[in-house]
Write a structure and sequence with these properties.
The protein is an all-alpha fold and about 140 residues long. Helix content is about 65%, strand content about 0%. The longest helix has about 35 residues, at about 105-135. It binds zinc ion. Zinc ion binds near residues 39, 41, 47 and 50.
């Protein structure tokens, strides 16, 4: 190594974080939670169908054209599992919201806040609409006051 070191650039190349092992671990967890809940499996075991899908997903991740800079598969614009499998994958990744709280509290809280923001905006919109309707109905009363 030392012999070659002088031929290498002195500056260390920027390290790109490899999140793939982490993502794989998360996916495995999500699959386990989903399969245990919906297919009655337990422990480290998955039903054959989920196991098959998981294997496909893990293999595809390793061969991802984006390499280690890849987005997470559930956010990828063109996931490579095929349409039907991608659908199943997303279902598995996005169900079981309450259990998520224990595994990824920050993500869940963020999601909750986003949902709450959405609900609140919707509530305000509906309230405005109903207030307008009420104002119309009571328009005559207000004129009297
Ligand atoms: Zn299953």
């Amino acid at each position: 190594m030392r012999i070659f070191s002088r031929f290498l650039p002195k500056k260390k190349p920027v390290e790109i974080k490899n999140n793939i092992p982490k993502e794989k671990a998360i996916i495995k967890k999500r699959f386990a939670i989903y399969c245990h809940k919906h297919h009655g499996t337990g422990g480290d075991k998955l039903c054959p169908k989920c196991q098959g899908l998981l294997m496909t997903v893990l293999t595809k991740i390793s061969r991802c054209p984006y390499g280690i800079t890849k987005p997470t598969c559930d956010r990828c614009e063109r996931p490579c599992f095929g349409e039907a499998k991608t659908k199943e994958f997303l279902t598995i990744m996005h169900t079981g919201g309450t259990r998520m709280l224990f595994t990824h509290p920050i993500m869940t809280v963020r999601q909750k806040l986003m949902d709450m923001g959405y609900d609140y905006a919707k509530y305000q919109q509906e309230k405005k609409a109903s207030d307008k309707a009420k104002a119309k109905e009571k328009g005559k009363d207000k004129e009297k006051k």
